[in-house]
Each structure stands twice: as C-alpha cells, then as structure tokens.
Automatic annotation (TrEMBL):
One Gene Ontology MF term: transmembrane transporter activity
Statement: the UniProt record of this protein carries the keyword Transmembrane helix: yes
The protein's name: Major facilitator superfamily (MFS) profile domain-containing protein
Pfam families attached to this UniProt entry: Sugar_tr
Species assigned in the record: Nezara viridula (Southern green stink bug)
Membrane topology label: Multi-pass membrane protein
Annotated ranges, domain Major facilitator superfamily (MFS) profile: 13-443
Transmembrane domains' residue ranges: 12-38, 58-78, 85-103, 109-131, 143-161, 167-188, 253-272, 292-310, 317-336, 352-375, 387-408, 420-439
PROSITE patterns from the UniProt entry: MFS
Length: 483
C-alpha cells in the first residue's frame, strides 16, 4: 500500500512521475536527430564508412521504418503487462541499438542499430497513454505536452554531441540515457485504469490516493473508471473487432489518422532528420551544423512555451495558429528560393530570409502541430481499447513519417527545393479547415466526457440514462478504496 500524501505533495509527485516517464522522450529525440549529425560525418572524406545519397536516405529512414512495428507491439504489450512495464521495456531496444551503432565499423551495423532504435521510438508512444491515465483533466495537456520538450532536448543534445565529437562517442551518451530510463521507471506506479481493468481494485485505489492526495477525489475518479471498463474480464479478439463499430472508436480513429497525415505532410520531421542538409541547400548564413544547433535550441525553448499554450488556450486554437504560421513561413521561403535560388549567396538580398523562415516554421510547429496528434492519442479512445488502438494509430503515424523521410531525397530531385517547400506550405494551410470542422476540443474534459462526446446526442434524459454504461455500476468504490 502506498503512502497517503498531502494534496500539494501528491500533485508534485505526479509531475515527478511525468518527468521520469519522459526520460524515454529524450532517447526519442536523440534517435530522431542522430541522422542529421551522422550523415554529414559519413559523407566527409575523413570517415572510415563511406555512403552515397541512397545509402544515406536508408540510414535516415531506417530510424523510422521499424517504428510502426514498435507502436503496434507496445499497444498489445500495454494491455497485457501494463502501461508502466511497457514504457520501462522500451528503454531496452534504445540501449541495444545505441550499443550496436557505437561498436559498428561498417554500414550494416548502422542499419541494424537505426532499425532497433526506430522500433523503440514506436514503443515510446505508450508514454502518452500512461500520462493521460494518471493525470487530472486540468493538467493532462501540460504533462503530455512535456513529451515534445524532452524530445527537443534530446535532439539538441545529439546536435551538440555531433558538433563537438565524433559520432561513435555520441552513441555512448545516448546509451547511458536509455539505461537511466530503464532504472528510474522501475520505481513508478502503474496506472489506476489499467489496474482496475485487471480487477486489481486495491492497487488501483491506493495509486489513485497517492496521485490525488484526497480520499474524495480518489473515490470520485474510481467511480468514473468503473463506469469506463468492465473490470471482471478483458475483451477478447472478436470483442475488440466488435468495438470498432462504435462511434466512440471509429470516429476518433479517423480523426487521428487524418490529423497525422496533415502533420507529416507539413514537413516538420524532414527538418529534424535532414536539418544540416536542408540548411546547406537553402544557402547557409552560418555553418550548417551551427544552424542545426540554433534550430535545436529554438525547438527546446518553443516546446516549453508550447506546453503552457496548449494547457491554457486549448487544442483547436493552438492547432489552427500553429499550422497557419507554418504554412505562411514555408510559402515565403519557397517564394524567396524561387526568385533567388540560382543567385550566388553573397549576391542575394537579405540572404538570411530562408533560414529565418525555417526557424519560424520550427517555432510554429512546437506551438501545437508537433504535440497535439500524440497527446490526443491518449485522450480520444475509450479505456477498453485505448492500449491497442493507441498502438495502431501511433504505428500509422510513424509509417507516414517513414514514407516522407524515405522519399524526401527523391522528391527533392523531382520537385526541387522550391517545389518541396510549396508542397509543405499547402498541406500546412489545408490543416486549418480540417481542424475547424473535425478536430474536437478536449482541454479540461475528463476522459469519460471525451468518450461520450462521440455518441449521438440523446433525445431525452431517460434515453441518456439508458445509454450510460452499466459496467460495474453495482460496485461502490467507497468499499473498494483501502485507506
């Protein structure tokens, strides 16, 4: 049985738990940013491992190709062994992948190491489900939005390592980060909804009391959990398929899939994975590696600002603001490159314009579009299928990322830099009407309220009472709660 903490101490403890969970997000950022510092070193004449453009694209994209599989695997694992245990296990493929790359002396081991760390990135999507299930509605957005802050921190760290040291040495620090995650997550609690879904009522109650610091708040939340899931038995395979017919399942599924398509189509991940190359192509104002570090710092600072914006201004306003600025900044960069791209850098008027536009684009992405699809995975699905479907949607999201990362060099040859930036601009601007017409607002709502928002509106109070979930309504959480 856990200790009962005062309310303020319980809130502080919840924040510490979120910070510990997000140590895996640091590894995600390191893995995403690693290709941006690895590829320039491999392409230099001093490297013992030489790669051409096709091999370089595989090194970059292999960090994503296995990610959908990791997300699917973690979704199933989260339902069977729990959210916390799944997140702890996630640190292992990160560690193994970094060790493989650190010890490699040819391209094959680099490919394998990137593949393994990509699998771990997919598994890390369970972090958002965990945080959604342990946090209060008023704090859920902030705690989940810390994920991109830590991802940005990981990206910045690996950019700095790549600038200061040889890439083999960078993998040592990355491996140490993964080992620390595995150790610290062991001491965290499992989520109350998952415990209750496995009929572990006493542990669920104790954990709620630890996280909330109030008997009344814990009892009220236990009631909601018991109304959300059948605690006596888990869903079987056929029952999961049956769930897909419910509007509380298929509606959020389609909303999130299209939201991810717009996110990946905006080009934000191309800037992360090909940062140094992109800044070289647009005409570097500074050394392209230094520009990558500047963007890494901007990402980190803006992700912190974005956390507070999402918490205070809602999901929809931030998504509209973020995608609008992204589209406009990329359009300006495309126009500038169209007009002056063939002019020598020293002869261009205001040569810093493309770089400034990309920095603004990164800032705008961190204000909403990067965080929101991942954050809302843990919010929109009902508890009975949240683990499985969060894994499926995450895997699709990562599949889209792999596609755009892999085909980026080919698109550059076909569309040119101007065409690519124009495409990213158009998709970013098309996100605005999508958000206006389809994306629900979830800020400050309980997970049960969000689930009910996808149901047809009842015609009367009597009909509403009939539609209420009968699951475990005969169980009084006052008797379950062990104080």
């Amino acid at each position: 049985m856990y200790l009962r903490l005062p309310k303020q101490c319980a809130r502080f403890y919840t924040i510490l738990v979120a910070l510990a969970i997000h140590t895996n997000s640091i590894s995600v950022g390191m893995s995403q940013g690693f290709s941006a510092v690895l590829l320039p070193q491999l392409e230099s004449n001093r490297s013992s491992i030489q790669v051409d453009s096709e091999e370089a694209s595989w090194i970059a994209s292999l960090g994503v190709i296995s990610t959908p599989g990791g997300a699917l695997f973690s979704g199933m694992l989260a339902e069977t062994v729990g959210r916390k245990t799944t997140i702890q296990i996630t640190a292992l493929p990160f560690l193994i992948g970094w060790v493989m790359m650190g010890l490699s002396n040819d391209k094959i081991w680099l490919y394998i190491g990137r593949f393994v760390t990509g699998f771990a990135i997919g598994m890390a999507s369970t972090c958002y489900v965990y945080l959604a299930e342990i946090s209060l509605p008023s704090e859920r957005g902030m705690l989940a939005a810390l994920g991109p802050v830590f991802v940005s921190f990981g990206v910045l760290l690996v950019y700095l390592f790549g600038y200061m040291m040889e890439w083999h040495l960078s993998t040592v620090v990355c491996a140490a980060t993964a080992a620390f995650s595995f150790f610290i997550i062991y001491f965290l609690p499992e989520t109350p909804p998952w415990l209750a879904s496995k009929a572990k009522f006493s542990r669920a109650s104790d954990t709620l009391l630890l996280l909330r610091g109030s008997k009344e708040a814990a009892e009220a939340e236990m009631r909601q959990i018991l109304h959300s899931v059948d605690c006596k038995k888990g869903l079987q395979y056929k029952e999961y398929l049956g769930q897909s017919k419910k509007p509380t399942v298929w509606k959020p599924f389609l909303i999130l899939v299209f939201f991810f398509l717009f996110q990946e189509g905006s080009g934000m991940y191309n800037i992360v994975y090909y940062a140094t190359n992109i800044f070289r192509d647009i005409g570097p104002v500074l050394d392209s590696s230094v520009e990558s570090i500047i963007v890494g710092v901007v990402r980190l600072v803006t992700s912190i600002v974005g956390t507070f914006c999402i918490q205070n201004f809602g999901r929809r306003p931030m998504a509209i603001t973020s995608s609008s600025i992204m589209g406009l900044s990329m359009a300006i960069a495309a126009f500038y490159n169209y007009k002056y791209g063939k002019v020598e850098l020293e002869d261009r008027p205001s040569p810093y314009v493309p770089f400034a536009c990309l920095v603004v684009n990164v800032i705008a992405s961190m204000l909403g579009m990067l965080q929101l699809p991942w954050l809302m995975i843990g919010e929109l699905f009902p508890l009975s299928v949240r683990g499985i479907l969060s894994g499926i949607v995450s895997s699709l999201g990562y599949l889209f990322i792999f596609a755009i990362i892999k085909i980026y060099p080919n698109l550059m040859e076909t569309l040119s830099l101007t065409g690519m930036m124009t495409l990213f601009s158009i998709i970013s601007l098309l996100t605005v009407p999508y958000v206006i017409f389809f994306l629900p607002e979830t800020q400050g709502k309980t997970l049960m309220d969000i689930e009910h928002s996808f149901l047809p509106k009842p015609a009367s109070k009597e009909e509403a009472d009939i539609k209420r979930s009968p699951l475990e309504t005969n169980v009084d959480p006052v008797y379950i709660l062990k104080i």
